């Protein structure tokens, strides 16, 4: 990946990607995932004790960061990844790891249509 610099963080609207997890591609499946570890603890840390799965913004820009670097994953590098990070990604040789700068979360997510991979986004002004 050649991109370096600013990057908007988009939360998917759909539930694709749950296949192979044992959870259904439905709201119920998403709610089930939010209640198991390490996802549950992470969501509690982020949203606080009173969060509900439907509070998670979907189909929106939820934050911004900077892409600092990107490199191809190796078996050695993958072996160093510990939980809970391992549960939040798909790590395999030949895939790429992206190093981000600090994340600034938006208080008010901005509805936006997403796309696979990197895509250009221009906010409505």
Describe this structure in words.
- This protein has 125 residues and is an alpha+beta fold.
- It has one domain (5-111).
- It is built from three helices and four strands, in the order E-H-H-E-H-E-E.
- Strands 1, 2, 3 and 4 form a four-stranded antiparallel β-sheet that branches.
- The radius of gyration is 16 Å and the shape is globular.
- It starts with a strand and ends in a 14-residue tail after the last strand.
Helices and strands, with pairings:
Layout lengths: L4 E7 L15 H7 L5 H9 L12 E13 L2 H5 L16 E5 L3 E8 L14
Antiparallel strand pairs: 1-2, 2-3, 2-4
Task: Give a concise summary.
The chain has 125 residues and is of the alpha+beta class. The chain has three helices and four strands; from the N terminus they run βααβαββ. Strands 1, 2, 3 and 4 form a four-stranded antiparallel sheet that branches.
């Amino acid at each position: 990946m050649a991109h370096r610099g600013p990057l908007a963080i988009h939360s998917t609207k759909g539930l694709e990607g749950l296949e192979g997890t044992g959870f259904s591609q439905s709201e119920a499946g998403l709610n089930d995932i939010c209640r198991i570890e390490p996802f549950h603890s992470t969501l509690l840390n982020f949203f606080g004790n009173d969060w509900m799965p439907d509070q998670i913004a979907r189909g929106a820009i939820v934050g911004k960061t900077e892409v600092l670097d990107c490199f191809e994953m190796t078996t050695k590098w993958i072996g160093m990844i510990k939980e809970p990070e391992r549960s939040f990604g798909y790590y395999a040789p030949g895939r790429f790891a992206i190093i981000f700068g600090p994340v600034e979360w938006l208080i008010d997510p901005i509805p936006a249509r997403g796309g696979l991979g990197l895509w250009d986004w221009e906010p409505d002004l």
